[in-house]
Amino acid sequence: MLKARQRLGKYRIERRLGEGGFAFVYQAMDTIEGVRVALKIPRSNLVTPEVLQDFRNEVRLTAKLDHPNILPLKDASFIDQHFVITFLLGEKTLADRIRCRLALSTALDFTEQMLQAVAYAHGMKVMHCDIKPENFILFTNNRLRLADFGIARVAQRTIKGSGSGSVGYMAPEQAMGHPSLKSDVFSLGLIICRMLSGQWPEWPFNWPPPGYSQLRRKAHPDLIAFVKRAIEPNPRRRFRDAEHMLNAFHRLRPRAERFAAQRKS
């Protein structure tokens, strides 16, 4: 691990933001540009020539993604024998934000932004494969941006090959090694359910989920049905991709907002 005030090329490390089975994440100051950035530094024992080639392939695949709700890769290079992946620095992650209660209007706005990001990627034939609150970064004005496209896939393969890692927010079929666009739909559904109910659905994802009473108090029945369809354990019963899911959300959102307004009056 790197320490605060340690220099890494043009970057000065300020603090560690987090760590996972694949990498450490640091906040750093770019002393040339004068801006703070997030540095993701894979664990050195996992960076093999094969992993580096995977990174090259994935970066080329995802470099075409240009959307306001997707966080672009700022740089990826070797610095002082560390492989360093650089991103813009947000205020916090969605995981940090949902530790506090969300108003329904905020949950709906976050849902819209998450679906916009993944629908755009699916329209470009790109799966994310690791959608979770930690990978949604919150910027000013409540702008969410989805991070780790490409990197997520490499990390998953590498961690799996090392014999470590966890199921996390994966769909059942993805955990069995058969991901699809519907697997991203499932992960989105889990996050939306958490934002609305205050609790995480758990394996084996039987309905109703934990926090269902809160979900019923807060959400229109059509919104509940939307969540239920997204987190169906059987992928054949889910939305076919995030574009399909986004279209369904657009149709029901006005009803969900009217329902919330009526509950307040």
What attributes does this structure have?
265 residues; alpha+beta; Phosphorylase Kinase, domain 1; Transferase(Phosphotransferase), domain 1; 6-stranded antiparallel β-sheet; 3-stranded antiparallel β-sheet; 42% helix; globular
Description:
The chain is an alpha+beta fold and 265 residues long. The chain has 2 domains: 7-88, Phosphorylase Kinase, domain 1; 92-264, Transferase(Phosphotransferase) domain 1 (Transferase(Phosphotransferase), domain 1, Orthogonal Bundle). It contains 9 helices and 9 strands. It has helices at residues 49-62, 94-97, 104-123, 151-162, 172-175, 181-197, 212-218, 221-230, 242-264; strands at 7-8, 11-19, 23-30, 35-42, 75-79, 82-88, 92-93, 136-139, 143-146. Mean pLDDT is 89; it is low at 162-166.
Strand order of the largest sheet: 1-2-3-4-6-5
Largest sheet: 6 strands, antiparallel
- CATH class designation of the largest domain: Mainly Alpha
Sequence stretches where pLDDT stays below 50 over 5 or more residues: 162-166
User: Which outline best applies?
Assistant: globular
Structural class: alpha+beta
**CATH architecture title of the largest domain:** Orthogonal Bundle
Strand content: 15-25%
Radius of gyration: 19 Å
**What is the CATH topology classification name of the largest domain?**
Transferase(Phosphotransferase), domain 1
Q: Helical segment tally?
A: 9
Write the topology of this structure:
Layout (H helix, E strand, L loop, with lengths): L6 E2 L2 E9 L3 E8 L4 E8 L6 H14 L12 E5 L2 E7 L3 E2 H4 L6 H20 L12 E4 L3 E4 L4 H12 L9 H4 L5 H17 L14 H7 L2 H10 L11 H23 L1
Antiparallel strand pairs: 1-2, 2-3, 3-4, 4-6, 5-6, 7-8, 8-9
Helix pairs in contact: 1-4, 3-6, 3-9, 6-8, 8-9
